[in-house]
Amino acid sequence: MGVMTATTATAFTFDTLGKGMPKLSGKNQVTIPVRVLREAGIEAGDMVQIRALGPGRVAIERRRDLIDEFAGKLSYPPGYLEELRDEWER
């Protein structure tokens, strides 16, 4: 999952969000507007990765669940796994 650039992302600014513009709290917390999360495809419960992109810039990306993504994708010739299991038992 790549970082969205200004040319591909919708700009959510004071003009588009109005009074709903997020602000960093004293505890370094920010509430991300629902519209932003929907457009990014991020939902409650998603694991996210947060990293600094430079002064004044932060990226939030949904973490990929590699097990869900790749489980069951490998295929083996018939009998191959049984052969491996037999080797373990020796």
Could you characterize what this model shows?
There is one protein chain. By secondary structure, this protein is α+β, with helices and mostly antiparallel strands. It has one domain (14-89): Pemi-like Protein 1, Chain: D (Ribbon), CATH 2.10.260. It has four helices and two strands. It has helices at 14-17, 34-40, 66-70, 80-89; strands spanning 48-54, 57-62. Strands 1-2 form a two-stranded antiparallel sheet. The longest helix has 10 residues, at 80-89. The radius of gyration is 22 Å and the shape is elongated. The termini are far apart.
Can you describe this structure in just a few lines?
The protein has about 90 residues and is of the alpha+beta class.
Question: What is the fold's blueprint, element by element?
Answer:
Elements: H1 14-17, H2 34-40, E1 48-54, E2 57-62, H3 66-70, H4 80-89
Antiparallel strand pairs: 1-2
Main traits of this protein?
90 residues; alpha+beta; Pemi-like Protein 1, Chain: D; 2 strands
The biggest sheet amounts to: 2 strands, antiparallel
What gap, in angstroms, lies between the N and C termini? 43 Å
Based on the coordinates given, report the CATH architecture. Ribbon
Are there runs of 5+ residues with pLDDT below 50, and where? none
What percentage of residues falls in helices of 4 or more residues?
A: 25-40%
| The level-1 CATH class | Mainly Beta
What number is the mean pLDDT?
Answer: 80
